[in-house]
């Protein structure tokens, strides 16, 4: 496991250190980079994100990384906003939809919390489709969430969560995976998920 080259994409607006520390605790060597060659040469790639989709996409475009990310063939894991950037568009703007990376179809919408407080913040249970990413993680395990926007359930939903209404807790298409929760803040279950991803 240690010999792999794991790269966290420096999106310029992310809480990168917590993801990095969580991986280092698992004994994984990690590099944070926005260098195209370093990203392409990685065994596994993390796409973290904190903040707004528009700021993150502006930063990714400025660094010239859109095509680089779209052409990756190794496993890629988007975390929180990083997951939302993987789909086609996000409603997280008063000016209309923001085009995202289109690594898979899908749209990010404001959560329909049906009277519950937003942002959705705290621990919530996740049900999953027994994919390799969730190996050894029981159904209805708690993960830690902080978000007001989400990808509704659809064909690429890998795991679901309910907060007012159901939404995608994880998504997947080919080598691209995304999780809406923060595995780096989700205790043992989060550590297991990160280990599973590194072992894909």
Can you walk through the features of this model?
- The protein has 200 residues and is of the alpha/beta class.
- It has a single domain (6-198), classed as Class I glutamine amidotransferase (GATase) domain (Rossmann fold).
- The chain is built from six helices and 13 strands.
- The chain has helices spanning 16-25, 36-40, 53-62, 66-70, 81-84, 187-198; strands at residues 6-9, 30-33, 44-47, 76-79, 89-90, 98-99, 107-110, 120-128, 141-147, 149-150, 157-163, 165-173, 176-179.
- The chain has a nine-stranded mixed β-sheet with strand order 2-1-3-4-13-12-11-8-9. It has a four-stranded mixed β-sheet with strand order 6-5-7-10, with helices on one face.
- Helix 1 (16-25) links the parallel strand 1 and strand 2.
- The longest helix has 12 residues, at 187-198.
- The chain is globular, with a radius of gyration of 15 Å.
- The mean pLDDT is 95.
- One of its GO terms (cellular component) is cytoplasm.
- Keywords: Amino-acid biosynthesis, Cytoplasm, Glutamine amidotransferase, Histidine biosynthesis, Hydrolase, Lyase.
- Its EC number is 4.3.2.10, 3.5.1.2.
- Heterodimer of HisH and HisF.
- One of its GO terms (biological process) is L-histidine biosynthetic process.
């Amino acid at each position: 496991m240690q010999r792999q080259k794991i790269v966290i994409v420096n999106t310029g607006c992310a809480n990168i250190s917590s993801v990095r520390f969580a991986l280092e605790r698992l004994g994984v060597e990690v590099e944070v980079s926005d260098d195209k060659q370093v990203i392409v040469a990685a065994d596994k790639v993390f796409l973290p994100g904190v903040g707004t989709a528009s700021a993150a996409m502006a930063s990714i475009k400025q660094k010239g990384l859109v095509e680089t990310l779209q052409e990756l063939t190794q496993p890629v894991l988007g975390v929180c906003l990083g997951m939302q950037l993987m789909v086609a568009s996000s409603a997280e703007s008063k000016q209309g939809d923001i085009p995202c990376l289109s690594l898979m179809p899908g749209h990010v919408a404001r959560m329909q919390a049906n009277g519950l407080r937003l942002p959705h913040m705290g621990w919530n249970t996740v049900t999953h489709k027994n994919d390799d990413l969730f190996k050894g993680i029981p159904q209805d395990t708690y993960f830690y969430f902080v978000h007001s926007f989400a990808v509704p359930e659809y064909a690429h939903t890998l795991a679901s969560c309910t907060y007012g209404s159901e939404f995608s807790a994880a998504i997947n298409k080919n080598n691209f995976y995304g999780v809406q929760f923060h595995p780096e803040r989700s205790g043992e279950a989060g550590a297991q998920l990160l280990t599973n991803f590194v072992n894909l």
